[in-house]
Amino acid sequence: MTKIKNTAEAILDTAQSIVQDVGFNGFSYAHIAEKVGIRTASIHYHFPNKEDLGEALISRYHRNFISAITQIDTQTQNSLEKLRKFTLLYGGPVQDYCTCLGVMISTDLATLSGKTREGLAQLFSANLEWLERVMDQGRREGYLNFEGAANVQAHQFLASLQGAQLLARSFRDVSRFNMIAEGLISALT
């Protein structure tokens, strides 16, 4: 059973890497099979069709995101520091001139299954809900200063990080992401 699980994880890891580079519609099972070193039939065993793979990718990415923000919440009390660590989550893919899975897969939204679109919306909602909570708490505690509603600020913060990923990728310049992320944090203090 471990080998089967490891194969499924290797498929998901490889698919995620490919999607973050070329998008969901930019690859086939043959691309994954070649990189993993298996036959396409093995991929179909775990993920009968590409929609199943898309749903599994988003579901796993969402679980990993929840785990990451839970870790941030557990390890960090200061809301400003929580936001800094959050920007590091979005900064990770930029190091390889990629975007997060959510950003890249959303560019193919029109061709995704309903479950994958729903999973994507849930992922973005989880981001926004966490940001809103942290921003609201940070303002109450005096760590953060901003005008207007926390949910509006959360949307602007998330959209700016996603846009920063795209700019860094387009220019192949990580410093553009860092500049925007630092500007977002500075604007809140």
What features would you highlight for this structure?
0% strand, mainly alpha, 189 residues
Descriptive report:
- By secondary structure, the protein is mainly alpha-helical.
- The protein is 78% helix and 0% strand.
- The chain contains nine helices and no strands.
Task: Chart the SSEs and their pairings.
Elements: H1 2-22, H2 29-36, H3 40-46, H4 50-75, H5 79-94, H6 101-106, H7 114-141, H8 150-171, H9 174-187
Helix pairs in contact: 1-2, 2-3, 4-5, 4-7, 5-7, 5-8, 5-9, 7-8, 8-9
Question: Which ranges are low-confidence, i.e. pLDDT below 50, for 5 or more consecutive residues?
Answer: none
Radius of gyration: 18 Å
Q: What is the string of helix and strand elements? A: HHHHHHHHH
- Measured by DSSP, the beta-strand proportion falls in under 5%
Supply the number of helical segments.
9
| Secondary structure: helix percent | over 70%
Mean pLDDT: 95
**Could you say which overall geometry the principal axes of the C-alpha atoms support?**
elongated
Question: What structural class is derived from the secondary structure elements?
Answer: mainly alpha
The total of beta strands comes to: 0
The main β sheet shows up as: none
Report the span from N to C terminus. Answer: 51 Å
